[in-house]
Structure formats: structure tokens, C-alpha cells
Design a protein that fits this description.
- The protein has 275 residues and is an alpha/beta fold.
- The protein has one domain: Rossmann fold.
- The protein is 38% helix and 17% strand.
- It contains eleven helices and eight strands.
- Strand 5 and strand 6 form a beta hairpin.
- Helix 4 packs parallel to helix 5, helix 6 packs across helix 7 and helix 7 runs antiparallel to helix 11.
- It is globular.
């Protein structure tokens, strides 16, 4: 670690639980952030400022004027610019010493598989069920830890699926694919601006804990926030032995899930679930 890095990250290094070794691990980490919107914005900003050595930021959308109410990566001057590139500019301004890879594309199939395989930690900051399940399958296949957050109206949620562990549940264990779950749109239902900041920042905190191998992550716990009362509720859950994705009868470990991605790509919409 250079003298400049020791100074930049000194407040981390002072933490007994983290120290120089933990910060060095953060610097060696490659984080894949899928979605540069309300959740991805604060998550990316904190990961960059904390020194995550490589960040791949993926989003197929462009900055819209209505995004500025909550998507703090972007500015009014960058309306119309690709969100991934706008995010690249913001993150580079905060920490020019880390590697940032902006990708303007909707991830699916082999492209998603390759990016998840190359990352150490994946943050799901997306806004629809199909993409969430596709990311989950790729993370299960490659045994990558997944940090998933969501926010709509005044309701937020976050959990961690540490798929390096054999006993960890996956996203499908908690939210089985194919169930009749209503998706809601941010454009119709609205979202409280600070809520995305709260959940996205917590995603960054969980990712940094994973990177530094410190503390206890949210694996097996779903945190639910009601921002109107500012009350948290914890739902504990376990791995589903009959899960069609991570269970012994699932086809994800063999790579069969790639064929399902084509279906996801056709069924995926721009509607928000909890993002």
C-alpha cells in the first residue's frame, strides 16, 4: 500500500476489525454493480471512496431528468448520457486511483455469466424480477456472494446471499421464480428519495464487509424498512433444500441456467419491483 493510500484510507485502517489487511483486501476486490440508479448510485459512490480496486458498473439506460430526485451519481448536466458513463465520471472524480469499467448494456446469458465469473462480489441494484433471478442463477453457478437491495414508495429491503457457503440460501429460496408476485413501477408508485440512499449505502456496507472478511453479513436475514415510521423488521430464512436453483435437483451448477436466460431476456420489462 502506498503512502497516499495509507493516508486516503487511514480512517478505515484505524478500525481494529478492519486495519491494513482488511483495507488491502478491499483494494484487491472486484465488485460488479448491476444497475446505476437509485440503489446503485450510493452503493457505487461508497465502494469507490472506500477503495474497492475494480468496479464494473452496468446499466443499459440513460440519465433522465426524473432520475435526479434520487440517483445521486448523476447531474443535470449529464441528462441524456449513458448512466454507466455518467457513473464512471462521478466515481473517477472521487477516486481516480481505482479501475472503473462502465458498460451500457442489459446483462443476460453469456455476458452476465462472464461478468459474474470475473467478479468477487455482485451487487444487485436492478429493478425487475427477471433480471434479479438471472443474476441469482449466475451467482449460484459461480459461487459468488450476492448483495441484493430494493426500494419502492416508503418500503425498502436488503439481504445477502453468500453463495460461497453450502448452507446459504439463494434469492430463489426467498422469492421463488414463477410465483404470482405483482411488480410495481417506480414511475407510477413513486419512491422516497432518501430510502434508496439508505438501502444502497447498506448494500455498500455489506459488500465491504464481505471484501474485508469482517463482521457478520445479512446471510439468512432479510431486513425490511418502513421509512414512514423508520422501523426495521427482520425476517430470518434458511436454504430451501428443494430450491430449483441452489438445491441438489437444480440445474444451475451444471450451467443449464444459461438457456433460461434467453427466456428472461424476452420476459424482462422496465418495471420496478422494489428499486
Amino acid at each position: 500500500m502506498t503512502d497516499e493510500q495509507l493516508l486516503r484510507y487511514s480512517r478505515h485502517i484505524l478500525l481494529d476489525a478492519l486495519g491494513i489487511e482488511g483495507q488491502a483486501s478491499i483494494l484487491d476486490t472486484h465488485a460488479l454493480i448491476v444497475g446505476a440508479g437509485g440503489l446503485g448510485s450510493p452503493a457505487a459512490l461508497y465502494l469507490a471512496s472506500a477503495g474497492v480496486g475494480k468496479i464494473t458498473l452496468v446499466d443499459d439506460d440513460t440519465v433522465d431528468f426524473t432520475n435526479l430526485q434520487r440517483q445521486i451519481l448523476h447531474t443535470q448536466a449529464r441528462v441524456g448520457m449513458a448512466k454507466a458513463e455518467s457513473g464512471h465520471l462521478a466515481l473517477s472524480a472521487i477516486n481516480p486511483d481505482i479501475e472503473i469499467i462502465p458498460l451500457q448494456q442489459r446483462l443476460s446469458g453469456e455476458a452476465l455469466d462472464a461478468l459474474v465469473a470475473s467478479a468477487d462480489i455482485v451487487l444487485d441494484c436492478t429493478d425487475n424480477f427477471a433480471t434479479r433471478h438471472a443474476i441469482n442463477r449466475a451467482c449460484v453457478h459461480h459461487r459468488k456472494p450476492l448483495v441484493s437491495g430494493a426500494a419502492i414508495r416508503f418500503d425498502g429491503q436488503i439481504s445477502v446471499y453468500d453463495l460461497r457457503r453450502d448452507d446459504s440460501p439463494c434469492y430463489h429460496c426467498l422469492f421463488p421464480e414463477g410465483e404470482d408476485v405483482e411488480e410495481v413501477r417506480c414511475a407510477v408508485m413513486g419512491v422516497f428519495a432518501p430510502l434508496t440512499g439508505i438501502i444502497g449505502t447498506m448494500q455498500a456496507a455489506e459488500a465491504l464487509k464481505l471484501a474485508a472478511s469482517i463482521g457478520e453479513t445479512l446471510t439468512g436475514r432479510l431486513l425490511l424498512l418502513d421509512a414512514l415510521t423508520m422501523e426495521w423488521r427482520t425476517v430470518r430464512f434458511k436454504k430451501d433444500d428443494d430450491c430449483a436453483v441452489c438445491g441438489p435437483k437444480g440445474n444451475v451448477r451444471s450451467g443449464e441456467y444459461l438457456r433460461q436466460s434467453a427466456v428472461d431476456r424476452e420476459s424482462s420489462t422496465a418495471s420496478c419491483r422494489l428499486a
